[in-house]
Design brief:
Layout: H1 12-23, H2 27-36, H3 38-45, H4 52-68
């Protein structure tokens, strides 16, 4: 059976607003987005071939650059 997602969730509309704010360098929006992805970051960093803390920081850095990237 699939595990229940215990993480935070927001509507698509709210996510788009947060993303737009993050692109405008709103630090609180970036922090909120990182919080939304925190469980994914922790999970994925276990499987990266580098020290755990380095893996977490790498994922966070890449996510921030994706948040700020224009389409």
């Amino acid at each position: 059976m699939e595990k229940e997602n215990a993480g935070l969730s927001i509507s698509e509309e709210d996510f788009i607003k947060l993303l737009a704010s993050a692109r405008g360098n709103d630090k609180k929006a970036i922090e909120r987005l990182l919080t939304l992805f925190e469980q994914d970051i922790l999970y994925l960093s276990k499987y990266m071939r580098m020290p755990y803390e380095d893996a977490k920081q790498t994922l966070i850095t890449e996510l921030i650059s994706l948040f700020k990237k224009e389409t």
